[in-house]
Here is the input.
Amino acid sequence: MSTRNEVWDAGGHVVQAGTIHGGVHLGDTQPAPHNNEIGVYLRADRAEVCFRTGAAEPFELTITNRTPRDRKLFLRFESASTTGLLWEHADTGVPEVFAVPADRSLQLRLRVICTAEALAGPDVLKVLAGELDPRTGEPTWWSSDSLPIEVNRAPGLTAELRQPEDVYDAGPYETVLTLTNTGNTVLKGRLRLRTEFDGPEHPEWLHSGKVTFPDGPHFDLRPGTTTDVRVTVEVPFSDWQDTTWLVPLAVQVEGDDAPRVDQDFTIRQRGDLVALWQWGRTPDAWKRRTIVAGAIVLFALGISLGAAGDRSGGAADPSGQTNAAVSAPSSSGVRLSSAKMPCEQGKSVLVLHSLEDSTTPADVKLYLDYEAMWARKHLPGGKPPDGAEVRLSTRDDTCPKVLQGPTPDKDTEAKYTWFVWLGTVPSNGAPALCQDFYRKAGKNCLPAGVA
Here is the structure.
């Protein structure tokens, strides 16, 4: 005799309760040996059940009590290797511990749900009915046969390129591409470089030759795990405004049903105006901001710090045509050190500022610090070639040839007593270095032979 959708308590009354559900456990619980008092029969509507993530599959369970007394039972679901499966009663009114009357059978409708945590692949599923021994408190189990099941593959992958901090200067920056396996199967693959954007018609893309993988491009991800792949990106010199560079990265995953990552990865580089403002927020900020404000005003007027269309740091040439903004009065107590300019044959310096005797020591130091900052920002590797530096010299420590003009009436006027210069460098490369320094040779960057 069988009864569908009726569950009794110990007194033989139908019990109404909420839906009972639980997880499918990994394990191989052994049923009571040589004990056929309880029969457990699990059936599905097809020979092998295939689960899709997020879907529920129906099962029918028959429990037969072959004894002359009522039995109080409860259920346990087990699989051999699959986690992430849940089960529940398809009908309400089924308590966690239910009674099966003597010499009767009970039919239950069940559902097994495949969550996103379930691993793809074949497995088996069985149901156990348990009864607690009142003397020991331990359960005795009766098991159904195992039904073959399979969880279908549902691969998924997300990728995010982390923005490096303080991308101002030209040069390499290290970041990571964070990969997360959001699917139910192991993902293997590699990062590759996209070369189709290397041409000049794609100026917003970084060249693929500027992107490298220090630890290699390969990855191996289990479901639910995350990995960081190190990426080194080399950015060019910045513009006045912020620049968003497209990074030529692609994620390639093995397999015919591999997930696609259709997105562009970007790196933001701060512009020169932002760099200038940050420089102006350091000590002596109220004075530095005067120079910064002057630079911004000149840029807005299209003068661009002394050369229309050219980026520079506000140099002045020895003829006295000062292109930088005049700083506010400085405080006392600043000591200046003059460097002896080497007067070597075949060498030159780049004169960046010629400052009058009336310029206070504090303001002279501001110009020197400003140019040192600009050199770190714009010159390849953050420093001039051949050990050259941004330096400060008095008129007496400046090579005489630097002070000479093409004719005596063009000599540097005596009122200029301090010179900020970059050098020394080979004379034949000095004009090109002005360009690297984002200055206009002959205007805000004066190459001058020292001997």
